[in-house]
Amino acid sequence: MKKIGITTTVPIEVLIAANYQPIDLNNVFVTSSNYQEYIEIAEREGFPKSSCAWIKGIYGVCIKEDINEIIGVMEGDCSNTKSLLEVLSLKGIKIHSFSFPHSHSLEDVTNEIQKFMKRFHVEETSVEKIRIQLKGVREKAKKIDELTYKENKVSGFENHLYQISLSDCNGNVESFEQALDDFIKQAQSREKNCKSLRLAYIGVPPMTADLYDYVENYDAQFVYNEVQREFAFPRYDQANTIFEQYYDYTYPYENDYRLAELKKEISKRKIDAIIHYTQAFCHRAIEDIYLKNKLDIPILHIEGDKINTLDARTKLRIEAFLDMILDTKGVKNESIRN
Fold first, then answer.
1. Is 81 domain-assigned?
2. pLDDT digit string, tens, across residues 217-241
3. What is the 3 state secondary structure string of the chain?
4. Family per UniProt (predicted)?
């Protein structure tokens, strides 16, 4: 299979039907032990210090890892993607684009996916066949999510890791499904690990993945990862077609649509508070104003940049936030563990 990079979740069913192996460039970047090298490659090429670390990381991955073909989401994701693709085209990388239309009408979503299928020379019947095949991994991701918020046997980071991996199924659907099976079996054998605070993580997946371990060293646990769960398409079984499935995807569309799902999950999972993560220099940071006005629940907004670990100031803010929420619940502060 030919490899093709993606800048965020796209209809991978189309790519697999076209005999491509999708590679989520974000996952390659953030999981690398040399992730800073990717950023440095971009900055040496002229990317400004004040541009998003994810954009620079994606660029560096394409250059260093010899990615020859890439799909960039031009509408419904990062506002810098258009410029990124233009610079990558200068390097001889073959560029494709995809959009999640702001109109968020089923007709417009259908048109975009049909154009995408035409671009890769596949028929709807072939795409639907792949969509049905992927139901297995999507169902297993839902099981991991239930083991997180219902049974308290899966950590927030594990929940994050397995759901975010559905953006590309780690490049191999069969081996990824086996990994899900193995993890579910292992997780089911664990004892429950219940904490006093039930937290939601909302916003883009973090550069600072140590956030999960840091928070769960205290009397708190993440039982909801908003965007990661959307990458796994948890409502796939309510969609009759691939068009409906990607129409029902909250991440790229307006905040009112996103809020409806957020409120439902906050209630269902009995969330006590939210940590909202955004990336430095990203337009999504402004959304924090809107969310705090629309959600009647304590929210802590934190921001990451180029470092993949929490800084001391952010750790102090998280600790103070958790302390405050524990106080409101009447849980003694001694229950916080360093």
1. yes
2. 999 999 999 999 999 999 999 999 9
3. CEEEEECCCCCHHHHHHCCEEEEEHHHHHHHCCCHHHHHHHHHHCCCCCCCCHHHHHHHHHHHHCCCCEEEEEEECCCCCHHHHHHHHHHCCCEEEEEECCCCCCHHHHHHHHHHHHHHCCCCHHHHHHHHHHCHHHHHHHHHHHHHHHCCCCCCHHHHHHHHHHHHCHHHCHHHHHHHHHHHHHHHHCCCCCCCCEEEEEEECCCCCCHHHHHHHCCCEEEEEEHHHHHHCCCCHHHCCCHHHHHHCCCCCCCHHHHHHHHHHHHHHCCCCEEEEEEECCCHHHHHHHHHHHHCCCCEEEEEECCCCCCCHHHHHHHHHHHHHHHHHCCCCHHHCCC
4. Belongs to the FldB/FldC dehydratase alpha/beta subunit family.
